[in-house]
Design brief:
Chain lengths: 619, 164
């Protein structure tokens, strides 16, 4: 860090500064609210031109203000505190740090190096936009996240919000809106990638006395939290896209269907709808355009299948969330048999920018067939987990290594899973694959809604396939046989393989059963459920064979196939392993090498975890 | 004929809310919101609750039970006073949530969803709670524990007054 960078202002304590505490779910779980309260309390007690501002109130123009924002996405380093306007980012902040931040940074303009992010080379990085996690990203949809207060319509408008809606209502016909979205080639971000403009145009062409628009925020893939963060950080953007969509298709009622597991996102959405209604952007005759629209928020009740559009519609109607065959498509016959357009919330969040900046601008970003950006939830065995937004067509390698910082602990990357239970794995040697709809599909995975799980060499691919099939089996609604029975049988086979009881013919059986389920299932859940099995078989068949033929798990993850041994040489006889063993099967004199009784061992692995001398081996 | 709340064991504010749903267009579409409100108040849905929801919304009892049993959010027996929620999303799974889950069951000597004898604790799993960067994650009474290892379990339980 340069000397110059260490001093922020020439007149410390006088220039207006904003203290921004991230209030996304991961930061809150790490104590962000306590930090916020501490700031509030201490700022009110010090003799700085300080103004403490709560999230619902207006930004003060003088002195210091303190804000809660939505998720800027750098969750691994949370709780995050940013000091604006200079953009200093403090990571892993604790309540105890608050006093120092006030005394040094706010009062004297000094940067506290210890709280700055330390990059891979050990360099302290001062500003948010200098951190590689951010600099390789392209933030359109997440542009406001972390920079505006999510509850404040004023903040959203100051950031350029609602301009697109005003333009659409004043200058454009519904046909023109549909045409512009079509020309941008925006594709659905929920996973399937269907062109949004086509969907809208088709719904517009339907004659009906009533139409609906639905925003799908039933983000069910385990390991995916893009939509939650987007709504927590910038709810108005999604709603603006939705109102524009309603105008484009002629809908008079909208529904946001959101998981009940997202209380903070629901709260912010409710508040945003209320503010829009108060200011005349929802309700009757919006901005004198003749558009009538209200938006109702419906909470899901914990059924993964409700992410499927026909199941979701049944759920809004107050029924069991089971899918039905298509056609008719919802755009012809959806809620209460009326034409209904259903878009993912990230798709809708792209709409205002396309209206403001034009279809050509948008289609220049990303690739020809997959324009724009995509938000991913990067998680698993990777240094920087969090929310990332990248232009389509970026290589997976860049996402994992440059933005994600690679695999921690000196371990080797094994594969990257995209698309959740409906997706597949990309092995480490295919990492140069481009991240877009077609390229990922060619490699046997899918774009999906944006879950991206990085796995190191200790992840067993058979176990991973088993995990996803177990998930799909539990979530199968039971309506069609291929999905209900198929997943149950797939799970049986995978379980016996991971127990070391696999049969020679099992690999062939898995393939045939998977193909049948993919072809014969009623809805997307069943059709895609076997994908994790097929893709791990394609790339890691050898690993399946080792389980079946040699009763071995090369990754050391399958409990029944692992043996724990104590090596005599490094063992110092400290007895730590014997004390944690739940079945008392480790014996040995003090200071002498210990031994594990293999007949009694239940392979819980606790001895392996506690040994400080690497004397316990896992094979 | 006006309705009298004595017909119902549900609290008056809930009866009023459900009557409000009943008066709206397509009132049967409020079945799930109605069940959510009742469960959030009482922690579970009893037969009596389901019956009263059916009457208040004028929806057949069979449909009410059909819908309630379809969705994981609804449960039909009271949870422990402290419900221990272990996230089993992909990131938590990859980082060892399974072992944490088993350890809670072992320490408390219960099966999943089954409350301890004194009714104080029950253990359940949750789909991804979206805090993947902190995996594995355990949530008790809105308190979130990050990067939990099996050996942290006794200390976590002690925070809520449990001693073996």
């Amino acid at each position: 860090m340069t000397e110059q960078a260490k001093t922020l202002t020439s007149n410390p304590g006088t220039e207006k500064a904003r203290v921004i505490v991230c209030a996304g779910t991961p930061c809150v779980s790490a104590g962000a609210l306590d930090i916020y309260e501490e700031f509030e309390e201490r700022l009110s007690a010090v003799d700085l031109p300080a103004e403490v501002v709560l999230e619902d109130e207006k930004v003060e123009n003088e002195g210091l203000s303190l804000d809660l924002t939505g998720c800027p996405g750098f969750c691994e380093q949370g709780p995050l505190v940013r000091i604006d306007p200079v953009g200093i980012l403090y990571t892993n902040v604790t309540v105890e740090d608050v006093e120092t931040i006030i005394d040094k940074t706010l009062a004297q303009g000094e940067v506290i190096e210890d709280l700055c992010y330390e990059d891979v080379s050990g360099q302290r990085v001062l500003r948010e936009n200098e951190i590689s996690f951010y600099s390789s990203q392209k933030r359109l949809v997440l542009d406001n996240c972390g920079y505006i207060r999510p509850d404040s319509l004023g903040d959203y408008r100051r950031a350029g919000g609602l301009k697109a809606l005003q333009k659409v209502l004043a200058e454009m016909t519904p046909e023109q809106v549909c045409d512009q979205i079509l020309a941008s080639n925006l594709r659905g971000r929920g996973g399937a990638g269907y062109p949004t403009g086509q969907k809208w145009k088709f719904t517009l062409s339907q004659q009906a006395e009533e139409k609906f628009i639905v925003a799908n925020c039933d983000e069910g893939d385990p390991g995916a939290f893009m939509d939650r963060s987007l709504i927590e950080g910038d709810p108005y953007r999604v709603l603006e896209g939705m109102i524009i969509g309603a105008y484009a298709v002629g809908a008079s009622q909208g529904f946001v269907y959101i998981r009940i597991e997202y209380p903070l996102a629901i709260k912010r959405l409710e508040k945003a709808v209320e503010n829009l209604r108060e200011q005349g952007f929802l309700g009757k005759n919006i901005l004198d355009s003749g558009l009538d629209l209200d938006i109702d928020i419906r909470r899901g009740a914990g059924a993964f299948v409700c992410g499927e559009e026909t199941a979701l519609l049944h759920s809004i109607e107050g029924k069991r969330g089971m899918p039905r065959p298509r056609p008719p498509y919802p755009s012809q016959s959806g809620l209460w048999d009326r034409p209904t357009v259903i878009n993912n919330v990230e798709t809708l969040a792209n709409v205002p920018d396309i209206i403001n900046r034009g279809a050509d601008w948008y289609s220049d970003i990303g690739t020809e067939n997959s324009p724009g950006t995509k938000v991913f939830a990067l998680a698993g065995d990777v240094v920087n987990t969090g929310l990332v937004e990248v232009p389509m067509g970026i290589s997976l390698e860049e996402v994992v290594n440059e933005i994600g910082g690679g695999v921690p602990g000196g371990k080797k990357l094994k594969a990257v899973q995209t698309g959740g239970p409906a997706g597949g794995c990309i092995p480490a040697d295919e990492l140069d694959v481009k991240v877009d709809f077609e390229s990922l599909a060619e490699k046997g995975s899918i774009m999906g809604s944006g879950g991206m799980i990085v796995m190191d060499e200790e992840t067993c691919m058979v176990d991973l396939a088993k995990y996803f099939i177990e998930f799909s089996r539990e979530e199968s609604c039971g309506k069609c046989t291929p999905c209900r029975e198929g997943n149950t049988r797939l799970l049986e086979i995978l379980e016996r393989i991971t127990r070391g009881a696999g049969k020679e013919e099992d690999i062939d059986l898995l393939r045939r059963l998977s193909e049948l389920e993919q072809k014969a299932s009623l809805c997307g859940l069943g059709q895609a459920a076997p994908n994790p099995v097929v893709s791990t078989l394609d790339y890691f068949e050898e690993e399946y064979r080792r389980h079946i033929e040699e009763q071995e798990c090369p990754a050391g993850a399958c409990r029944y196939l692992v043996t724990y041994l104590i090596e005599a040489d490094p063992c110092v006889g400290c007895g730590a392993c014997a004390r944690v063993c739940p079945v008392d099967c480790i014996s040995g004199e003090s200071q002498e090498p210990h031994e594990i009784d293999q007949n009694e061992c239940i392979k819980c692995g606790q001895c392996y975890e506690v040994c400080n001398f690497e004397a316990v081996l896992r094979k | 004929m006006s309705c009298c709340s004595e017909e119902y064991t549900l609290k008056e504010k809930i009866v009023e809310k459900l009557q409000d749903f009943r008066g709206r267009d397509r009132s049967d579409s409020y079945l799930i919101p109605a069940l959510q409100i009742v469960q959030e108040e009482y922690g579970y849905l009893s037969r009596q609750h389901l019956d009263e929801v059916a009457r208040l919304l004028s929806v057949p009892y069979a449909r009410v039970t059909g819908v309630a049993s379809f969705y994981q959010f609804f449960n039909f027996q009271p949870a422990g006073e402290y419900e221990i929620i272990i996230c089993t999303g992909t990131a938590c799974h990859v980082r060892g949530a399974g072992a944490v889950f088993d350890r809670f069951l072992e320490e408390l000597g219960v099966e999943p969803e089954e409350p301890t004898e004194d009714g104080k604790f029950s253990v359940t799993d949750a789909r991804c709670v979206g805090a993947c960067s902190k995996a594995p994650v355990v949530i008790i009474e809105e308190k979130v524990y990050s990067h939990v290892a099996p050996d942290d379990v006794p200390d976590i339980l002690a925070d809520f007054g449990y001693s073996p």
